[in-house]
Structure formats: C-alpha cells, structure tokens
Amino acid sequence: MRQLQILSPDGKSRTITLEGERISLGRSSVTELCFPDDSGLSRQHLCFEYDGEDAWALLDLGSKNGTLLNGVKITERSPLKPGDRITAGHLILIFDGQTSKLSKPVVVFDPNADVDIPLGPQTVITNLEGVIKSESTHGDSQSIGSSHMSALIRAGNELAGHRPLPELFRFILDLSISAVKADRGVLMTLEDGDLIVRANKGEGFRISSTVRDKVLNTGASVLVRDTSIDDAFKERRSIVEQHIRTLIAVPLQTRDQIIGIIYVDSPSLMREFTVDDLNLLTVMANVAAIRIEHTRLAEIEQAKQLLARDLEQAAEIQQGILPAGAPELKGLDLAGFNAPCRTVGGDYYDFFPYPPSRVAMALGDVSGKGMPASLLMMGLQARMQVLIDEPKDLAFVMTRLNRITSANCPSNRFISLFFCILDGESEELAFCNAGHNPPLIIRKDGMVELVKGGGPVLGILPSIEYLEYKTGLAEGDTLVIYSDGVTEATDPTGEEYETDRLGEVVSKHRDKPAAEIVKEVNKALAEFTAGRPQGDDITLIVARRVAA
Beta strand pairing status for 415-423 and 33-34? Predict the structure, then answer.
C-alpha cells in the first residue's frame, strides 16, 4: 500500500493510505480529499489514479493555479515514484516518502577547532555601526560614500517593513530626496500607460518629455549636473522659469518591467548632483520598485482572500435556501441534488409539499455563472415562495412570475424554469415549461420519453401568456428534471453527455430509490468527464411513483 503525507500551511501533517482506483483532491465536497478553505485550490484540482501493481499516477484536473511535481508544473498524466513532492494550492503532498540518511553531514561545527581569530592584516572584522561611523575617520570623498552607504542601509531596513501603498510611496520619495539632498521631488507610477502622481514634495513640476521617455522606454537613469551649461536644457523656458540647476530622473524598475519614475531636482549649485548620487538613487529606486510590487501583490492577495471568504459565506446562504431534503409523501419517492461549478451558482430547485400526496416541484437555471447568477437565482426563489401557495392554475403562476422577472431582470439575463405538480394518488402530472430542458419520463418498462410542451424563457417577453400541460406518471414510472449542466457536461474530447446517456443511466437503475438514482447519475457523469472541470452547475430532481 502506498501512502500520502499531506502538509498544510498551519504546520499540521496527516498521512493517508491510497486505496481504490481514483482519489481526487480539491475544494469541492465531492472530492475524496476536500480542503474547502484553501483558496489556492480549484474545486476539483487533481487526482491520483491507480496504475496497477502498487503504482500510482498524478493528473491535474485543469486547475486554475496548476499542480507542481518536484517543482515542475505538470501538463499530462505523470507516474509517481517514492519521495515525489507535489504542490497544490497551499498544500504540500509527499508520495510514499521515506526518510533517507546522508552518508556524511553537509556541515559540521567542530568544538575542537575553536581558536581565537587573529586580528592580522588579512582579516577584517566590522559591523553595520562600524561601517556607518567610518565616515568620521575619512576624508570628504570617503564621507560622501559612507553617507550613501548609510542611506542604502536605511532604505533596506525601512523598506523591509510593512506599509500600506500610499504611505510607502511617500516614504520612498522622502528617502530619495534625503539621500541625494534634493530640494523637491515627485514619485509617479505607470497605470494603463499613464503616469500617476503618487507622492510629491513641491509642486509645479515641468519635466522634460525627453527625460521622461528616456527613463521609461530604455530604463536609463538621467543626471543633469548643471542645466545652465547643458545645451539640451539651457534654452528650455520651463527649466529657466523654475530655476532648476541640477536634476535626476530614475526608473522604478523591477526585474522585468518599469512601473514608474522618481524625479528630484534642486535650484542650487551649492552641491550639484553627482554620478554617485545617480548610482545611489538608481539602486534605491530598484529596491523600492520591488517593495512596491510585493506590497501590491500582498494587497491583491488579501483582497482575493476577502472575496473568497465572502463567496464562501454567500455559498452557505445560498445552500441554506435550497431544500435540506426531499419531503416524504404518500405514493411518491423524491430526491434532489445541486452542485455549483463555482463557489456560488445560478441553478435553483425546490419542493413544495401539499399533504397528503401532492407536491409542486421547480427547477430553474439563470443564464451566466457566479455571483450575478446567484443573486438572480435567490430573487427567483423568493418570488416562487410568494406565488406557490397551492396553485390551481400553473399557467397563471408562470405568467405572473415572468412579468415580475422581466421588470427586474437585466437585459442580458434570462431564466429557464420547469414547474410542475405531481399527485401521488393519481397519474396526473401538470406542468409549465419556460424554455427549460424537457424533462424525462422513464416508464416502468424502461422506455424513455421527453416531456414536451412549453413557452419562452422568463425575463425576455413580459406580455407572454404561458400554457399549462398535462401528462401521466403511472406507478413504477420515474420523472427526471435536470439542468443543462448535466447534458452539456463534456468528456476530454469535448463530446457532450446529452439526454440519451442520462436516459440510459436512469432506465438502468429505475427500480432503485430516487436518492440512489441521483448518485448513479453523478457517478456516470464523473466517469464520462474523466476529471474534466465542471463547466456548469449540475442540478437534478428525481421523482418516482411508488405503491402507496
């Protein structure tokens, strides 16, 4: 038996034994290894497949963030060997790991080798304080260099802290002005091709477009020692009016992109900017740019985590309004199921029992996915609750529901809905269909029929009048209402599951309880899609006429 060690971000570890033919992992509750709080995982992220003779393979299920095997992202089914290290989301998984011992340790601290370090001419010992204070024991040029080193050390220490972006921008500019003893300056970042001022000391900056373009387009740092004698600047009116005598412009540059610019200048030539100043500011801008990007990424990650937490709470609320279970009624065996393809979904189903043996059933599908579809679905559920008080005229209910939906539904959205009443004491099935997939009736002898008849989807034509239809459901017959997430599920080649396969599965298991039929349909879908990510919400209602 092979084992899998799972290491979570909180430092906890657990070991499981790999058994069966296939073990999946993800955030979804349908996976065998479920980690719902790991935002880095997809709903169905990866799976382990048995290869026979105690061998296993790893397969990524089209996850958003990918799966790493020994640090390399996998794109196809990969055989596993003992000790392989798998990274998924925030989890680390070790396949059949065994502790190995090195024949020789890498590092040894030998107490017998402890001797005093000689303070000879070939040995230099110092510390940060010594480096900074050394400026007092050297000449002017050394003092300037030490001052620059002190500025770099301060920048490294200060930028290692955590500051919100607005504060970080101001601090970087103040640090830059102080480091080169400038009179004023401005820090700008590139946002969608435009330079946006993030921090400034002083105002009325008129920066040469040539300098700007040189910095942003080539990543060069620009120093003008004295604008009064530089041919490119001495005739510029803006430079003369601002009394600018010396200036530096450097890029805020990470490893692979320029994200902005730092510009400083001074009207005085008491101390003109030097090449050392230029080099210092270039290095500091590079360190600052990396800090800015890290802070941005951290804020984005925090926002994503907050959104994921909100979505999880929305999913709990949404699941709370769906039926906790099917009602038990005389002559009927009922079951329902819903699995959103995202954290929240746009499918809706419900049971409305009228004891002793009648039940209204509804299954709807809002166009689109995610939060917008979820909000529309919850609005549909609320309206159904108001209109469903044991209706005698289904057509009236559907017509009124459409008018209300049309008045509140965005122009690019619509809802398909199948609504019916089934009587456990008779064979009558009354229904209205607003553009939904025709349900299936599987007769007692295994024959499959489509429940035909209906009108357009809800939310498009407010004045449409719907019609009520009737058919029969005899003892031993099974009604299957479903969303298109079932029939439009695809296998790895892109082929859809379609209605015929659904009918075959239900027909094969028609004598089983409704809840078991739902399980068999889900099992068949999982085998057909072979781990392919769920493309749409999956919702089912199964209703069987049984002996009273």
Answer: unpaired
- Global pTM exceeds 0.85: no
Which pair of tokens denotes residue 221?
A: 């740092």
Give yes or no for a contact between 415 and 405, defined as CB atoms under 8 angstroms apart: yes
d(CA 11, CA 91) in angstroms, rounded, equals 10
Question: Can you tell me the mean pLDDT for 272-295?
Answer: 85
In angstroms, the Cα distances linking 120 to 116, 134, 178 are 12, 19, 38
Query: Which residue, chain included where needed, has tokens 């290894």?
Result: 33
Task: Return the structure tokens found at 193.
Answer: 């091709």
Work out the angle at residue 509's Cα, subtended by the Cα atoms of residues 507 and 510, and round it to the nearest 5 degrees. 60
Per 3-state DSSP, the chain is made up of helix, strand and coil in percentages (nearest 5) of: 30, 30, 40
Instruction: Render the burial of 79-102: b for 16+ CB within 10 Å, e for the rest.
Output: ebeeebebbbbbbbbbbbeeeeee
Return the closest-CA partner of residue 422 out of 487, 351, 497. Answer: 351
Q: Is the dihedral of CA 276, 279, 283, 289 positive or negative?
A: positive
Quote the crossing angle between the two packed helices 498-508 and 514-529, to the nearest 10°: 140
What do you get for the CA distance between the two ends of the chain, in Å?
49
- Tokens of residue 195, six digits: 């330079």
Give the angle subtended at the CA of 289 by the CAs of 147 and 131, to the nearest 5°: 20
Long-range contacts of the stretch 152-156 (C-beta < 8 A, 24+): 152/280, 152/283, 152/284, 153/128, 155/179, 155/284, 155/287, 155/288, 156/287
Q: pLDDT for 56-81, tens place per residue? A: 999 999 998 899 998 899 999 999 99
Structure confidence at residue 103 as a pLDDT band (50, 70, 90): very low
Q: What number of helices (H) and strands (E) belong to the chain?
A: 11, 26
Question: Among 206, 155, 210, 213, which Cα is nearest to 179's?
Answer: 155
Q: How far apart are CA 179 and CA 154, in angstroms?
A: 10
Q: How far apart are CA 163 and CA 321, in angstroms?
A: 42
β partners of residue 420: 361, 431
